[in-house]
Amino acid sequence: MNKLNLLDFNIDKLEKKIFLKKKFIYNQIIYWIYKKFCFDFKYMTNISIDTRNILSKMFKIILPKVINFKKSIDGSIKWWLNTNNNIIEIIYIPSFSRSTLCISTQVGCSMKCKFCATGKNGFKRNLSVGEIIGQILFVSYFLYKNKMKCITNIVIMGMGEPLLNFYNVVNSIKIMLDKRFFGFSKRKIVLSTSGIVPFIYKLYNYIDIVLVISLHSSNNNLRSKIMPVNRKYDIISLLRAAFFYVKNTKASKNRINIEYLMLNNINDSIDNAYELLDLLKNFPSKVNLIPFNYIGDVCFTKSSEEKMFSFLNILNKNGIFTSIRKNRGLDINASCGQLSGVLN
Ligand code: SAH
Ligand code: SF4
Q1: Which residues pair with 324 in a beta bridge?
Q2: CA 28 to CA 178: how far, in whole Å?
Q3: Is 80 exceeded by the pLDDT of residue 119?
Q4: Between the chain's N and C termini, which has fewer beta carbons within 10 Å?
Q5: 280 — phi, psi (to 5°)?
Q6: 44-76 b/e (C-beta count within 10 Å ≥ 16 → b)
Q7: CA angle 163, 297, 226 (to 5 degrees)
Q8: pLDDT of residue 335
Q9: Which residue minimizes the CA distance to atom 3 of ligand 1?
Q10: Which residue lies with its CA nearest to atom 6 of ligand 2?
Q11: For atom 4 of ligand 2, which residue has the closest CA?
């Protein structure tokens, strides 16, 4: 019999799969895995041998395997992981006040954004709950073994479009929030989407976390050219959906978090800044300008610092709180959009 990955299971699902008379044993199993990093049933010593035997006949605890890793001069670490014979990439980004883990939700991505290395390589498959959770557990265990600062924040900004792997992503987030598992605060889990409008509305029914929209353009014409998703869901419908989500949930504090990638001479002019301002006048927002990261053979280049600051000043002066993202892990190709799923 093919064994199931126990990391795919939350407590309810586990109870449905395997009947244990004493309910507290479910919690004990989870405690061993998530708090004590014990990945073999035979060492779960406060659980009866009979139960351990049943568990090990049905389940395995499957973590992704390391293929390679690189450490940046700024302390960030990027891992290439093998998960069921596909390569995914994840990044640990420590800073003074927090330690963030950027995780992947798909092998590749189908969205074909013109500026993104993940998109350039196409889509292979969705990751399962166990494969998503396995990334966090793997890094948590690594940090524990190396006595390093444990993860405080999760950003779902690695490979893939999370809303196109909706149920696995939602169920993974439930495990991230559950105190018996990781217990992250909802304000410390960030999900970034290119804008799959119906799933933003649907997300509201399932989970309350910080939503980030990859907008990257101040008009539809431009956005459709660099992000094909815009041909299906245009900017206003996206902003409406995002506003609905943030208004009706708590973690995003009633503001839409907008990512705006600065592409030299494409979307970074003063006119673009005013156009963006006009777009956002009815949508309480916070803007994060992202410097473009080099991904090889594409026709985009980075905007100059001067242009970025002019853009920032226009938005800030007109009441839209705007910041510029500090890039981390650039020397190891570990920044946004650089995760190709290929060893480099
Ligand atoms: N698919 C989701 C989340 C993963 S991409 C999304 O698109 O939002 C994470 C972020 O990296 C997005 O904001 C994306 O637009 C940005 N990004 C992609 N390519 C980039 C590049 N070359 N330089 C900087 N940011 C990039
Ligand atoms: Fe996919 Fe996001 Fe890259 Fe677009 S930016 S191709 S949605 S990973």
Answers
A1: 289
A2: 14
A3: yes
A4: N
A5: -90, 5
A6: beebeeebbebbeeebbbbbbeeeeebebebeb
A7: 40
A8: 60
A9: 157
A10: 119
A11: 113
Q: Catalytic residue, from 89, 131, 161, 259: name it.
A: 89
Decide if pLDDT at 339 tops 80. no
Closest CA to 173 of 190, 151, 157, 159: 190
Q: Is 113 marked active-site?
A: no
Atom of ligand 2 nearest to the CA of 116: 3
Whether 252 has a pLDDT exceeding 80, the answer reads: yes
The rounded percent of the chain whose pLDDT value lies above 90 is 88
Beta strands per DSSP E along 97-164: 99-102, 106-108, 123-126, 153-156
DSSP bridge partners of 302 = 263
Give residue 333's identity as a one-letter amino acid code. N
Percent of the chain residues topping a pLDDT of 70? 96
pLDDT in tens, 253-275: 999 999 999 999 999 999 999 99
Pocket of ligand 1 (CB under 6 A): 115-116, 157, 161, 192-194, 214, 259, 261, 290, 292-293, 295, 336-337
- For ligand 2, atom 8, the nearest C-alpha belongs to 160
The pLDDT value recorded for residue 293 is 87
Q: How many residues does the chain have?
A: 344
Per-residue confidence band for 92, with pLDDT thresholds at 50, 70 and 90:
very high
pLDDT digits (tens, 9 = 90+) for 191-209: 999 999 999 999 999 999 9
Rounded alpha-carbon distances, angstroms, from residue 251 to 84, 99, 133, 257, 315: 33, 19, 21, 11, 23
Give the pLDDT confidence score for residue 344 in this predicted structure: 60
Average pLDDT, integer, range 93-100: 94
Rounded CA separation 330/149 (Å): 21
Average pLDDT for the chain = 94
How many Å lie between the centroid of ligand 1 and the Cα of residue 336? 5
Rounded to the nearest angstrom, the distance between the alpha carbon of 276 and the centre of ligand 2 is 21
Identify the CA nearest to 172 among candidates 53, 327, 8, 307. Answer: 8
150 belongs to the catalytic site: no
Distance from Cα 69 to the centre of ligand 1, integer Å: 21
